[in-house]
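Onboarding guide, step 5: your first structure request.
Type a short instruction followed by the sequence, for example:

Predict the 3D structure of this protein.
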Amino acid sequence: MNEAARDQLSFRPPAWRPWSYAAGALVALGLAVTSAAGPVALGSGIAFIVIAGVLLVLTGLDLWYGTPLVADQEGLLLGTAPRRNERIRWSDVERIEATTTSRGLVRLASLEIDLGDRLVVLSRHRLGVDPEAVADELRRRWRSAPRPR
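The system replies with structure tokens like these:
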């Protein structure tokens, strides 16, 4: 393994997640087929088909978009679209911060990377790990990166 590959750090959801979404979709489809409830009841076949559809979309997004964030010595590699990445040099980063918003039982955590003219926001769901830990690691790498003269 070369030095550059060893120093590369990637953040992505766990590999089992899309497969568990797919399994949930299959269960929901099975429940839809065997449902005896009316069309508007909570246990109706249509409700299970909608749930299966949402789970299949989540499966596809996780598999299609791949790794959302990679950090190395030169900067960041952001997954911006299916099979497309954008290189951001450390010198282009102005601020790295993790934010958390709570409303009742809902807690939303995200990573914010300020590039001056735009703000990149990645959710905990997209990163697969706690944004605070990611922010700490990225700030450490950002501060130790060589600055242009």
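Each response can be followed by summary notes, for example: The helical segments are 3-6, 16-34, 45-65, 124-127, 131-144.
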